[in-house]
Write a structure and sequence with these properties.
This protein is 41% helix and 18% strand. The protein contains 18 helices and 13 strands. Helix 5 runs parallel beside helix 8, helix 10 crosses helix 11 and helix 17 packs across helix 18. The protein is flat.
């Protein structure tokens, strides 16, 4: 970290455009920090001794200017010219800076036009590739920009069985150019799959881009088989999974309390198998899934305080029970309105196989505040934000999450949005 003259700092128009307006609240906060202490340095790229390109720290720089300061602390990043914009966007993401829809589209457009693939853009935004794909798909101009970047005709010729040299002769380009187009496209498709997009979705997306991809062709690219929902009995389907392939299991089994909503005018039927048989089902399923999990892996089991004394010893037969997480739903069920306390939480038992660490940037707490999900679709549906916290805490991108009581598929959606591979099993 060094101190330089503020006049030496240059703000590029394309980086200023990432956030069109300054936040007066943020500027005021940094002015206070500079008056009564210090703040972390701004990030810059050095051009020469008297010229630096600002990458991150617009509000800090503005605060210094308003305080009539002449110098500011900087940290120099050793990056290429083409990486400056990428790093500026990534820094905003790391700060949790919200974009307007217009700002986000401008950023995505710039990244696409610079030649970035969807996976590279996802890495900059720190989210899953499928989430970026959906954002691009919603805007016709962005989708067109991305489509124009890929030579569709070349890809289709190769998919139809022509050799790279034949395609090169057809279009009057070098063989190496055809190979580059093919490899870039194939690698992007593989990245999509590794980051949680199902094969069916990949085929659909590619066909929308006029690429004649089939499931048969796609299967030739991959060895594993995941990002899928298996319809069947978990006790029959779990044994078919690959041994030591699963990094994290998240399940929401029937609680064994004959749950039925007492609030809705049209009550749900009693949840299937939500009785004493659920404990036998849980025991058998945990015994089966143990060998399907990696030597160092995690498992989360949703449960209720009413049956925890039955569920806890079952889990402890197969795993090391690490903690009991309290999910605070910030609302409560109706139940007995006069003679009992209202319930506003559920429990999640967290256990491990081996010594897998938690990957959260800061040590996570065992009380998680998260609004409950809309239960119109499924009476015990869990919110995506809650599941994403568990997934991100226990896995790295592209690792495999299994939910064999998949229900409405919330765990699968959360895994996909987090850039993880996933497998779901549901009897219906």
């Amino acid at each position: 970290m060094i101190e330089v003259m503020i006049d030496y700092i240059e703000e590029l128009p394309e980086i200023k455009a990432i956030r069109k307006n300054h936040s007066e609240e943020a500027i005021g906060r940094y002015m206070e920090k500079y008056e009564f202490g210090t703040s972390k340095p701004i990030l810059v790229k050095k051009i020469n001794r008297q010229k630096y390109i600002l990458i991150d720290g617009h509000h800090r720089l503005e605060a210094k200017k308003r305080l009539k300061n002449k110098k500011i602390d900087i940290k120099i990043l050793d990056i290429g010219d083409k990486e400056v914009f990428d790093k500026a966007v990534e820094a905003n993401q790391e700060h949790g800076v919200p974009y307007t829809k217009e700002e986000e589209n401008e950023v995505l457009k710039t990244l696409i036009e610079s030649g970035k693939t969807q996976q590279q853009i996802a890495n900059i935004f720190h989210i899953g590739q499928s989430a970026i794909a959906m954002r691009i798909k919603r805007d016709s101009m962005l989708a067109k920009s991305l489509g124009d970047k890929i030579n569709i005709s070349t890809i289709n010729e190769v998919l139809n069985g022509k050799k790279h040299e034949e395609v090169a002769n057809i279009y009057g380009v070098s063989r190496s150019r055809v190979t580059q187009i093919w490899n870039d496209w194939k690698n992007e498709v593989i990245e999509q799959y590794e980051s949680g997009t199902s094969k069916e979705e990949i085929v659909e997306q590619q066909r929308e881009n006029k690429v004649n991809l089939t499931l048969e062709s796609l299967n030739e690219f991959f060895e594993g088989d995941y990002n899928k929902l298996i319809k069947g009995d978990c006790l029959k389907e779990i044994p078919k999974l690959e041994d030591e392939s699963v990094d994290c299991v998240i399940i929401d089994p029937p609680y064994g309390i004959e749950y039925q909503s007492n609030y809705r005018k049209e009550k749900y039927d009693y949840i299937q198998d939500d009785n004493k048989n659920t404990f036998e089902l849980l025991d058998k399923s945990l015994k089966l899934v143990l060998n399907k999990m990696k030597k160092n892996s995690h498992i989360y089991v949703f449960t209720s305080w009413k049956v925890i004394e039955k569920v806890k010893p079952i889990i402890e037969k197969y795993f090391e029970l690490k903690n009991c997480i309290v999910w605070n739903k910030n609302n409560w069920g109706m139940g007995d309105l006069k003679n009992n306390y209202a319930e506003k939480y559920e429990l999640i038992l967290f256990a491990s196989k081996g010594k897998r660490p938690l990957y959260a940037e800061t040590r996570p707490l065992n009380v998680i505040d998260c609004e409950r999900a809309d239960t119109e679709e499924h009476p015990t549906k869990k919110p995506l934000n809650l599941l994403k916290q568990l997934i991100i805490n226990s896995t790295k991108p592209k690792e495999l999450v299994l939910d064999y009581f998949a229900g409405s598929g919330s765990t699968l959606d959360a895994s996909k949005e987090s850039g993880r591979r996933w497998i779901g099993i549901e009897v219906k």
